[in-house]
Amino acid sequence: MDPADARATLQAERARGLEAVAAASTLDELERVRVAVLGRKAPWSEVQRSLGAFEPDPRRELGRLANEVKSTLEGALRERRAELEGSAEDALLEGDRVDVTLPGRRPRPGSLHPLTIVRSQIVDVFTRMGYRVAEGPEIEDDWHNFEALNIPPDHPARTMKDSLYIDVPGLLLRTETSAVQIRAMESQDPPVYVVVPGRVYRREAVDATHGSLFQQVEGLAVDEGISFSDLKGTLEAFARAMFGPERRVRLNPDYFPFVEPGVQVAVSCFLCDGVGCRVCGNGWIELLGAGMVHPRVLENCGCDAERYTGFAFGLGIERVAMVRYGVNDLRLFYEGDVRFLEQFEGAA
Ligand code: 2NL
Q1: Which of 144, 183, 259 to mutate to test the pocket of ligand 1 (most atoms within 8 A of CB)?
Q2: What's the confidence (pLDDT) of residue 97?
Q3: Is the shortest distance between the CB of 198 and ligand 1 below 6 Å?
Q4: Is the Cβ atom of 263 under 6 angstroms away from ligand 1?
Q5: 328: buried, middle or exposed (CB in 10 Å: 19+, 13-18, 0-12)?
Q6: pLDDT at 61 over 80
Q7: Nearest alpha carbon to residue 320 among 290, 273, 279, 281
Q8: Residue 320: count of CB within 10 angstroms of its CB
Q9: For ligand 1, atom 4: residue with the closest CA
Q10: pLDDT value at 209 more than 80
Q11: From CA 193, how far away is CA 95, in angstroms rounded?
């Protein structure tokens, strides 16, 4: 190679190299261009290797030109690499892009079960009157569930037919929450004012208005000088707090072994106000059982029945929820069907 050829090659390589660098569209392609224009087998390297054979003057001149071409091409490669790296990064970022302004996917919140709503409303009415909430075990012994409540051994409620017994003799699933009130009276002297929400169990055929499990709220007031009119006034206050200030209560004689006298309590219908409608039939909704605590029950708990009197009442939460929300089948409360339950979101 003579100096003129070498000069022409270097200049041609500079032009060819710049073009190839500009044309490279990926980092891999650019690396192939680098090898082709500056690698060991590139024309530029051949010229570089042949310089030693030239006279000093052309060697100096061509050496300078070769360095200049090299640094021009290296500069172009560097710039192009930066560009391609930038757009590779842009593509990556674009793929990973997160739109922080998108609203998040919120978990759907649940809502209170209708029986929970009604239970806490009932309990609240009594706590506002000064009652304390008491709770107790769902497995009870014979004494607290029956004997202390004046339910004699031959009472039908005691048979296997009506109660749910467990394998341990003398224990059963409580048939009413009264057992908790017995415990309250046993553990403190009057005055006793307690309200007891809880599950109770009966051996019953399941249908629209019966189940083997239901929830109850019972109340008990034992003090000096408690009379039947205290019971009536308390029930009236309860009916008005739950169903509106217009409500009246009606008491009819009834029998429960643990009270004397015992009454069945009906509330004037909140829809027709006692006229008669589809919900109530004859204008009255039977809601509670109640009565004056039997003196034998007081004595069973260590209360002096000469000095203290008391009243008690009990009501089923399902029954209240059914009339309040117009639900005609109790089983709906226990099936856990979201289509049913979500209708009570925000209910009161
Ligand atoms: C009903 C009837 C009632 C009671 C519960 C009671 C508790 C004690 C003493 C006396 Cl410790 N009585 N509770 C009294 C009368 C009726 O419930 O139909 N419940 C769903």
Answers
A1: 259
A2: 84
A3: no
A4: no
A5: exposed
A6: yes
A7: 279
A8: 24
A9: 313
A10: no
A11: 68
